[in-house]
Amino acid sequence: DEVDALAEALESVRGVIVAGAGAGGAGVHALADRVGWPVLADPRSGARVPARTTVAAFDAILRHPRFAADHRPDVVLRLGEPPASKVLAQWLAASSARQVAVQAPGRWIDPDRTAEIVVAGDPARLVAALAKRLGGAAASGAPWLARWARAEELAQRAIDDRISSLDASSEPAVARQLLASLPDGAALVVSSSMPVRDLEWFGAPRLGVDVFSNRGANGIDGVVSTAVGVALARRSPTALLIGDVAVLHDTNGLLNAATRGIDLTIVVVDNDGGGIFSFLPQATELGADVFERLFGTPHGVDVAALAAVHGIPEVAAAGEGSGVRLVRVRTDRAENVTVHEELNRAVVDALG
What we know:
Shape: globular
Number of helices: 15
Order of helices and strands: HEHEEHHEHEEHHHEHEHEHEHHHEH
Low-confidence stretches: none
Strand content: 15-25%
Helix content: 40-55%
């Protein structure tokens, strides 16, 4: 049957599982144990949990040229939507691996057209069926997986060490620390652009928090409203990690939010503009004035004052206050690029 055919297609010692949004949660690790493969887990997948098979720092790890070259897989099982990492996407595209993509019906997302087999179905059910079909003793001690696990261990330690030496208000530190600080049962909504990338690249594995994000053609529209909706639906502590421009794209989402009886902390990374563009070629190819006018787009809006108009108070840190409240973290766009470079360099150095 289809499961048997897919199991045969996945027969390889050198394989990886890429788990994105819609991957079906932590059940993927049962399959990973069976085949001895690492799970490169997006925080939206529900699979970024503390486990020997989890690799969370894949973006930084794959920036190590020798590791990336020596660990090209023969087979890739892609579950759910692709992560945001361009480094991962390029590594997969160049790997020449046999790639199998499993996504919900109507969700065929394969921008590089590298999937040899595309399965329209529930990734969680298929993963469970594959794990049962493969059976046998767990292969989690395989040397292939052990090397990935060691790289993840070194990377997480390097990220912790480097972040502890940086300003606590750096953008990667905010993403990592916000995720770690939330109580069990909480939800974290992450905006597009840099917040979702910072959480993907630097968020550590943990249990107990569900991560949501709007990815796709919507861009940064409607993010505040999404967070309000998540908080209303779940009736549990909810945090929103969002940039200042995304807040301004959905100020209507603040309307009456303070009267909805929800527990929502809005953490605004405020660098007065579009921070992601500072990572792109135009940041150095254009003159500073032209870049700022076309891409940096500084607005000068006081987002805390804007929230106050809607009855939403500013608090000093996530975890303080109740109801709907706002935490503003001021950052510098140019310094943020340097921080990312330092963190990635720390991981590369740690891998040797």
